[in-house]
Amino acid sequence: MSIQDCHGVKKNKIVREYVIRPIEHIQLLPGQTIYSCCRKELTDVYYQFSAEHRITKVLSNFFVGDNCAKQFLKLTGHNALPLFNPLISTSVVSGANSGVGASAGTTVSVSPLNQEVATAIRLYLALTLQPAMPGRLFDNVLNNIKSTPNQSVPTQIVINVNKAIGVKSLQQRMNAYPVGTFRKFLFPNMIAILMQANESINL
Fold it and tell me: Can you list the residues of the chain whose pLDDT is less than 50?
């Protein structure tokens, strides 16, 4: 279930009825579009928010562009999230620019494993346009990493994230994408854990 219309003053009603939390801030890839509940088709960047109804506790989510996101962030008192863009740099990336546990324009100390896990999730979301469903694996992992960035996630979380990515690896997805040049992403800590656990590697 998702919030379909958050245009104009409806934001105030939504904030009164729901506990709103930003999940992701991601650059859309060339050719991708996603619908904003502010009644606009987005072609550049998007925010995803989770929404928990204050009475029923039912979880939902919605997508907005930067302008609408700024209004929700102001209404809820949350900090802006850094933008995850898999295309803009030609450098080698090992969990870098994941924005883990930091608001836009700030940095925090994050364990290398957490950086890799967060980057793997965000790269998967960027490639597939799948939402990080509130209360489920990707949302829970990202939220826990943000809350405790220096505490590396358990081995089972690495295994679960790898399985959730699926048999088509992140690298295969990037290779198959018709437009754009991706950064080079490395996941040495995740791969070491998966190899030790005799798991297939979907990164």
Answer: 90-93, 96-97, 101
Encoded amino acid at 59, one letter: L
CA separation for the pair 185, 43 (Å, rounded): 24
pTM of the model: 0.87
3 state SS for 12-50: HHHHHHEEEEEEEEEECCCCCCEEECCCEEECCEEEEEE
Cα distance from N-terminal residue to C-terminal residue, the chain? 29
- C-alpha 61/C-alpha 81 separation (Å) is 16
Say what the pLDDT of residue 3 is.
84
pLDDT digits (tens, 9 = 90+) for 57-71: 999 889 999 999 999
Closest CA to 127 of 84, 156, 96, 93: 84
Host H or E run for residue 120: helix 112-128
Distance of alpha carbon 77 from alpha carbon 73, whole angstroms: 6
Which helix (H) or strand (E) segment is 196 a member of?
Answer: helix 188-196
| For the chain, the helix, strand and coil percentages under 3-state DSSP, each to the nearest 5 | 35, 20, 45
pLDDT score at 36? 93
C-alpha count within 13 angstroms, C-beta hemisphere, residue 173: 19
Q: How far lies 116's CA from each of 19, 30, 58, 109, 131, in Å?
A: 29, 24, 30, 13, 19
Task: Note the pLDDT of residue 103.
Answer: 56
Contact partners, residue 46, CB within 8 Å, separation at least 6: 24, 25, 26, 28, 34, 36, 63, 64, 65
